[in-house]
Known about the structure:
It comes from Pieris brassicae (White butterfly). Keywords: Carboxypeptidase, Disulfide bond, Hydrolase, Metal-binding, Metalloprotease, Protease, Signal, Zinc. Its cofactor is Zn(2+). It is a single chain. The chain is α/β, with parallel strands linked by helices. The chain contains 13 helices and twelve strands. The strands form two sheets. The protein has an eight-stranded mixed beta sheet, sandwiched between helices. Helix 10 (about 330-345) links the parallel strand 10 and strand 11 (about 355).
Amino acid sequence: MKVWILVSLCAVAFAKHEIYSGWKSYYVAPASQEQLSILGSLESKLDVDYFVQPRVDREGVALVKPRYQEEFLNVLANKNISHRVHSEDIKSQLDIEDELIEARHAEFRARSTQEKPYDNYLRLDAIYNYMDEVAAYYPNIVKQVTAGRSFEGRPIKYLKISSTNFEDRSKSVIFVDATLHAREWITTPAAVYAIHKLVEDRTDPELLENFDWIIMPVANPDGYEYSHTNERFWRKTRSTDQSPLSIMCPGVDGNRNFDIHWATVGTSNNACSDTYGGSKPFSEIETRLVRDVLEENLSRMILYITIHSYGSMILYPWGHDGSLSNNALGLHTVGVAMADAIYGKTLPVFSRYRVGNSLLVIGYGASGAAEDYAHSIGVPLTYTYELPGLRRGLQGFHLDPKYVRPVAEETWEGISVGAKRAREIVRSK
């Protein structure tokens, strides 16, 4: 029996990433807007997935399926687009990631130490168990809320953290969410670590004296679980009711599903695309629940941060057209303060954060984004964090788990400084 179980487990581990057999990734470096446009067209023509979007002044990273690789390379060669291999074997990289995660688990078991969701990449149950424990142990400052259930029926939870039970109207509200894009695993520990610092650590009393906090670590639980069990690079939700193709191509890009210039730029009306914006704004229960938190707390909310990865960026509105908000100076001032705080804590393997308007920094527009929607309804300071990948090497979404805690720690530095600077700026107005 033991031998059979061992063999079965090995077979499951081996089969887990078979979908990525033969997949490769490439660095691409456009030298002109024309070349950049050509690369952009390959997303739909050849189903290219850009881990890092290319710009004229920045290399991108393109994930290409086996059946399209020859044509992809022919296009690059014919159009003289500079490129080189990023990874010859995506599957082997993911197998290594699994081994590293398991080794990290083993370290904690060997020390008989409880592994927390900001120490490693943990499954949804472990994250929710931690939130349950925190709410149970600290009932005077923590209230756990089940906002609703995902398309597949999983609870979507957040913690309300307050020393005054959200009753002091003079306090500012900060809202942080993460993992709206399922494959961006590093974002979850960053959000959970914020819970730890606010509730268990409490070394900075100002953060509870002046602020009420809402932390939603996993905004897309269906996609998150699916990325652990089936497809590591799954990005969307898992709904199947959006179009006739949705049974075959489930899900919606949550960060294209908000009601702000919906379906106008940087999105797709093809249900099989990773950037499919859905059949209508807020078609997804996951985005509706984020919307509800924003609207319910709008009168006191001064700062909203939606955590994504990767690229070491702090982005602010407007992302759909690159125009600047009337509050652009405040947005940039607080953004730079957050980036500087992160830089003071960061490791040398990570790039320094860039701060700016979403379209201008990333190089492409995106409609229906959470950051733009929150700003459009009146949250004065709204940001998308793009957490770091390694400055050199292959790791982006699948960042070595040894970096989970350092990234969580440096991200918290940005969030905490951002809250304080946000309050200063909003109060000064």
